[in-house]
Write a structure and sequence with these properties.
123 residues; mainly beta; 11 strands; 50% strand
């Protein structure tokens, strides 16, 4: 089973930036899409962004479009989520996930999940 490990979470001030990383254990990432999800206290898990196998297609939640950027480096087996102009409502546990069913932010389409990394935005 493919294993994912997120890192880069932490505390950031309003308007600040943070970059999350997701390291994957798969031999070849070229067959997998990757997504970032988040879950705030008392709320359901929501999709943040997703990137295609080659990186040529990306999608974003309306709440983060224009502020967050997803990218991947298949050679380094790592997926990134660059977050800028951060807001308190971005506070959540962020999860990396992977699947093979096309670019989507439906959690059911992803078969492997990381353990999550906490992101807190202070005002």
């Amino acid at each position: 089973q493919l294993q994912l490990v997120e890192s880069g979470g932490g505390l950031v001030q309003l308007g600040g930036s943070l970059t999350l990383s997701c390291a994957a254990s798969a031999f070849n990432l070229n067959y997998y899409i990757f997504g970032w999800f988040r879950q705030a206290p008392g709320k359901e898990r929501e999709g943040v962004s997703c990137i295609s196998e080659s990186g040529g297609r990306t999608i974003y939640a309306d709440s983060v479009r224009g502020r967050f950027t997803i990218s991947r480096d298949n050679a380094k087996k790592t997926v990134y989520l660059q977050m800028t102009n951060m807001k308190p409502e971005d506070t959540a546990i962020y999860y990396c996930a992977t699947g093979a069913n096309g670019v989507t932010m439906e959690p059911a389409a992803f078969h492997s999940w990381g353990q999550g990394t906490q992101v807190t935005v202070s005002s």
